[in-house]
């Protein structure tokens, strides 16, 4: 997995976002099993996902994680702050571990 250059489309963020295209499991508050989605892009304050299994709910709690080279596990959780008609959703990151923050540096 490699980090790609920051997204420039409609850029209003203060920190860069990195495009990924990585399959990850998202654990959602009201579902018993995690949902496998595509992590489209990621930044310090949030992440955008594409879900083939249908929409989530606004303000819903969710958590996700992935492994980077060196077997470091990046984990973050937060709330769904935006839903798209095409199955995309944005999670505002409220908490993340040191590996997550280190990955974005």
Write structural notes for this entry:
This protein has 105 residues and is mainly β. Strands 1-2-3-6-5-4 form a 6-stranded antiparallel barrel. The chain starts with 17 loop residues before the first strand and ends with a helix. The longest helix is centred in the C-terminal third of the chain and has 7 residues, at 98-104. A hairpin with a 6-residue loop joins strand 1 (18-28) and strand 2. It is globular, with a radius of gyration of 13 Å. The chain is built from 1 helix and 6 strands; from the N terminus they run ββββββα. The model is unreliable at 1-9 (pLDDT under 50).
Approximate strand percentage: over 45%
Q: How is the biggest beta sheet arranged? A: 6 strands, antiparallel, barrel
Number of beta-strand segments: 6
What structural category arises from helix and sheet content? mainly beta
What share of the residues lie within helices?
Answer: under 10%
Strand order of the largest sheet: 1-2-3-6-5-4
Task: Identify low-pLDDT runs.
Answer: 1-9
Task: Note the run of SSEs as H and E.
Answer: EEEEEEH
CA radius of gyration is 13 Å
Which geometry do the CA atoms define? globular
The rounded distance between the terminal residues' Cα atoms is 15 Å
- Give the integer mean of the pLDDT values: 83
């Amino acid at each position: 997995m490699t980090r790609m250059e920051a997204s420039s489309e409609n850029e209003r963020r203060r920190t860069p976002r990195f495009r990924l295209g990585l399959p990850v499991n998202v654990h959602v508050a009201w579902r018993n099993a995690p949902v496998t989605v595509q992590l489209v892009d990621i930044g310090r304050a949030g992440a955008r996902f594409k879900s083939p299994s249908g929409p989530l709910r606004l303000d819903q709690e969710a958590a996700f994680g992935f492994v980077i080279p060196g077997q470091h596990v990046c984990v973050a959780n937060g709330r769904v702050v935006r839903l798209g008609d095409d199955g995309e959703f944005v999670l505002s990151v409220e908490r993340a571990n040191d590996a997550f923050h280190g990955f974005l540096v």
